[in-house]
Amino acid sequence: MSDSDLVDVEEPAPAAEQREGAAVARAKKVEQVLTHLMVAVKNCMLYGSQHSKAIESAREAHGAIEGALAETPVLEVTRIEQEILFEGIPLQDYSSALTSLADTMAARDVGRLTIRAGVQPREVEALVQILVSEPGMLVMNGGPEQAIRRHSVANIELLPCRTVTTPLSVTRRGSEKSSIELYQDALAVTKEAMSSVERGETVDAGMVRPIVGEMLGSLLSDHRALVGLTAIKSYDEYLYEHSVNLSVICMFFGYTLGLNDNQLADLGSAALLHDVGKVFVPVEIVRKPGPLTEEEWVNMQNHPIVGARILARTPGLPELCSVVAFEHHIRWDYGGYPKLVHNKSLNFYSCLVTIVDCYDSLTTTRPYRTRMSPQEAVGWMAYSGREQFEPRLLARFAALLDVPMIGTVVRLNTGEWAAVVRGSSKDPARPIVRLLVNQAGEDVSSHGWEADLGERDPASKEHLVKIVERLPTSAEATEEIAKALVPAR
Fold it and tell me: How far apart are CA 262 and CA 253, in angstroms?
């Protein structure tokens, strides 16, 4: 058939109207299904998954889903930004339920929800539990796809919304090398780069980019093994291991934020070389167990400037490497170094590296202190040092370790609702909370009653009060709650 044989055929008006009417009816039924689903999600958030109201609303959602699936074998909706689409058409949100669902899906990196005929009530309950799970922990455990598999759900599919472009230096299959071989190769490249700088030579960018690309490929394939190696630390290799650890953790953190592969490769390169100026700081200063003298402190504070100059004149490296080297100790409150005459706007990647730099330092044994656990380190950052870090990035990083930020509203195992107000002196990983609503549902926020979640039972050594649920909210909203509850320091 030639192109001239292709003729537009106008559909009879009654048939077209009938088709449109059927599509509208299907869309309305899907809107009702998603509204029921969001009611189940909110009840699970409020009462917990085992409460009768949560169970009842999940069953009602299942009934609505079965009704919709009676007319079609598959119910599939897609999220694009704040809109939910069915059969490519945005659904009408008359009750704000769909907007809430879009926000819930976005926070958990869900781009598409597919439900097939034969779905069981327990599968709908599993879907609800995934949609109320802590976003950071969901990402750390493989994302929505893996969560569905762990619940042994066969008739529901959750797909992430993230799409990436892959640079030539990155293979999404990862490297043929094992994770430990990759880590050792990265250490070797870092040592050679710093040795070159020490000899007065420039860094060989041709070595840096490929190893960062291999590590990124491994992370994209399966992050667990490579990220796990960042917990292995030795005293003598600290400078090199710290640089490799930073590169790995920064790329993983950046991935959870939705950076594409080219951005992640630039971030990984900048993190790997951020401390290159430290090769000119005498080792006795770096390893000194006590406070530094004024002269020693000036020497230490100079390393970001030295490193930035070296990287700025190194061909083949992204400009970001020099920027991050210069800014990674300045801090969000500008209380770090180098000191600036006028507070400039800090680079997004520098703010990210600053967070991971502090985390890796706190979880490493140093001459002047013992190492913290990952949760203790993030607890210190979230409660004691939070002014030092960009608040939205810190909130996202804390979520990965399941540490609630100040201002987070939580439900306790006592049945009370409370807000996190500061860290506990008894356990750096756990907060003190201000009670808002008691077990009877009464507002007690004006009483100023607090509970220390770091306290343990003297006999069992178990924590007495625990967080069993937290209300999902934006970093900005959490910060507003914190301002209302926590006196300015």
Answer: 15
